[in-house]
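Researcher: We plan to redesign the surface later, but first we want a full-length starting point. Tokens attached.
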């Protein structure tokens, strides 16, 4: 039995891992501004934010109608001047809200527990594997939340990733000392046209 034939049998038997990195869930239409909230931006030192990808966007990105998400990554265009970011955490939940409606501040499964994180310009920031995997199924939209503590030393208008001009990102930020916590702190302010561009492993 040659390798190709063996793999066909293995796939049929469910032995092969068919998970892979998705395409960009939304197309990169621009780079987030240096004062635009995003998953590595430190214009304010302490941040919490959330945004939604629709079921149609996820189906197109994965090429299938369900996925167990075990990893997440995004492209860092410009790194934050001051890092690492402390208590950096990620949450996910299934929602019915669309891409321009606030997905809310509670109900998230913590898929990446809080830890110190640094970022490098012109590279993917990869969280793989996530602390906890998360299952998405067609018909459900997916909300993703990020939160972190006060960045070290000072704030700065730096830390950029690619964004999509449709939909909205919702955020709260401050220069006060402390840590924003997913499922505890409110996410209130709207930034239109700045959903981060992500790839998901599933």
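Model: Full-length starting sequence:
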């Amino acid at each position: 039995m040659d390798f190709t034939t063996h793999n066909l049998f293995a796939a049929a038997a469910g032995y092969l891992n068919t998970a892979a990195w998705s395409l960009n869930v939304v197309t990169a239409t621009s780079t987030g501004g240096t004062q635009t909230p995003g998953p590595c931006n430190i214009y304010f030192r302490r941040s919490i934010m959330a945004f939604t990808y629709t079921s149609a966007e996820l189906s197109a990105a994965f090429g299938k109608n369900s996925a167990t998400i075990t990893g997440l990554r995004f492209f860092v265009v410009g790194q934050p001047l001051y890092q690492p970011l402390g208590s950096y955490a990620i949450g996910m939940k299934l929602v019915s809200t669309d891409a321009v409606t606030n997905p809310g501040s509670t109900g998230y499964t913590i898929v990446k527990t809080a830890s110190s994180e640094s970022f490098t310009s012109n590279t993917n920031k990869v969280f793989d594997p996530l602390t906890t995997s998360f299952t998405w199924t067609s018909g459900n939209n997916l909300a993703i939340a990020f939160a972190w503590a006060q960045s070290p030393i000072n704030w700065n208008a730096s830390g950029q990733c690619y964004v999509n001009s449709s939909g909205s990102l919702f955020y709260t930020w401050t220069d006060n000392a402390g840590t924003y916590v997913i499922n505890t702190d409110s996410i209130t302010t709207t930034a239109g046209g700045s959903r981060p561009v992500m790839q998901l492993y599933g």
